[in-house]
Each structure stands twice: as structure tokens, then as C-alpha cells.
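Sequence and structure are no longer studied apart. As an example, we show below a sequence and the C-alpha cells encoding its fold:
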Amino acid sequence: MKCRLKRPRIYYAFLITVVTLSLCIHFLVPPTRKPEKILSSFEFYKLLVDKYGPFRILDEICVEENCYVVRDALANPLIMKPFERQLLQTKPPGIRAIALLQAPTVRVASNTDSSKWMIVRDKVVDGSLDFMMLEAAIMSGGLSLDTNASIKVLIVGLGSGTLANFIHFRWPSATLIGLERKVEFARFVLEWFQIYHDYRLKIYGVVPSEKIAKLAKEGATFNVVFFNVCSMSYHSIPCPSIEDLSEATIERVAEMIGHTGAFVINLMTNGVDATAVYEQQKHRLERHFNCILLKSKATYNSVLSCSKRMLNINRTYEINKFLRQLTTISMG
């Protein structure tokens, strides 16, 4: 007769515990991933383009009669860089603002989602609207070549929000105010172009002409006023219209910038010759300022550089040299 030894209960308890823990580890702990292959810059951008194409639309907004999209786009497909975030108007099509994107330092396949990349705040794109507006502000003497200078800047229209980022970073003693009538559009631009307001950069969702009147009444002064507004339907381009830039607004800006400041205006020409567009504004502006028209390579924008003093066009080389030290690859 065989005698069977009974195993103690603790044995079965231990066995159940081991099985339970094994199952938990199997289902709850993610499997160890193999390290991703580190890609060269060319391989990384090529993979990104293969995945999304040379550009990808991230978001769209329509405010009143105007529609805008934000897209990430490859600026130069031949060399597979740089990647930019662009604000486009859709009617008529045209680029309103450009910011360079900072590619991840670890270039692997899982980091190709450009919507999560950071905006480069200390650069502007050579040849862009922002570049031209900066050039105009320096040419007029409002924006100092000394980046340590204390300056006050008013930005009317957040289509120039990338300018706010750049000046905020490059002129650490600057104080800036941004005005945007269309609050939904302001939120849209602030989010996608990563514009963070603080004690040096304040953003207001207001009717610009009303806020300008209030600032003038309070005795506010500015070194530079950037004006990038078109509240009318794009069928009414060229802009700004008389409604956007009234005689009263021009007089108040002239008062706030004094004899040494700059008034920089984006003319949205929509293919119309910029000189003809300026002629429509000339009689009102030249009562208060000396102005120079800077024509863009693009057909949809040109820039007016205005000041009460005579503009020093002989500094063009010096200004461009300074700006190109702060810029990225040319738009071509």
C-alpha cells in the first residue's frame, strides 16, 4: 500500500501567487521596445515627407468672410529642410506669416509628427513678410540695432504674431502690446504659433481703432507700430481700407510714435501693383510721415516704412547684414 504525502496548503498559495504575478507582469508591463534607428537629417525629413507629403494642414478657421489655415511645410524640397509653420489665407491664397520649426534633436521615426514640434523664436525667414516688416522698422529708426535697447512696440493685427515672438526673444528689454479684433482668430494664432503673453507681451481682443484711441488718450508712446489689418472681405483688397486705417487712427499713431518712431504697414495687394496701392494711401499718410515702399517678391504683400524724420536708405546694407545674422534659410 502506497502512502501519498499531502503537500502543505502554503505550497498551493505560493503557486497561485506566482501565476497571478506572472499574468500581471505579462499584461500590465509593456514589452521592451528595441531602440529606434537614429536617422540622418536627410533620412528624417525624407521619412516625414513620405508620411505626410511636402506639407500638411493642421487646422483651419473661418472668421466672418475670411478663412485661414495653418500648415507645416517643407521650405526647400531639394535639400529636405527647413520645416516651417505657415499661416495662409485661402481667399485669395497667400502666406500671411511663417515661423521656423525646431526639429527634434533625436531624429527617429516616432518623432516625425511636426504638430508637436516647438517654434523657433529667435529666427525669422529671410524674404518673408516678417523680415520685410523688421527691415522697414529698422530703416525708419524705430527698431534699434542694439538688441539691449528698451523699446516699446505696438502690433496691430496678430497676423504679425510671429513678429511678437521674435522681438520678445531678441530684444529682452522690449515691451509689446498686441491687438486683434477677431478673438477666435487671436486664439488660433496664439495656439499654433506658441505666442505666450507675459508682463512684457500683452494681447488684447479689441477693436484696434478703439484701443489705439484709448492708448493715445492715456499718453502712451511707442518706438514702433506694426499695422497688419484687413477687416474687410478679401474681395475688397487692397488693404488696409479706409475703415481699417482711418484718418483719426493715422493721427493718433503719429502722436504716439513722435519724431523718432516708425509706422510699418502691410499692404495686402492681391496681385495689384504695390505702387498703385500706395497711391491710394499716399495723400493721407504723407500729411504726417515720410514713407518708403518696400516691394515684396510675392504678389500679395508689400510694406510701407513710415517716419516723421527722413529715412536713411543708405543703411540698407548694414540693416540687411544685421537681419541676416538673425534669419534662417532664404525663401528663394
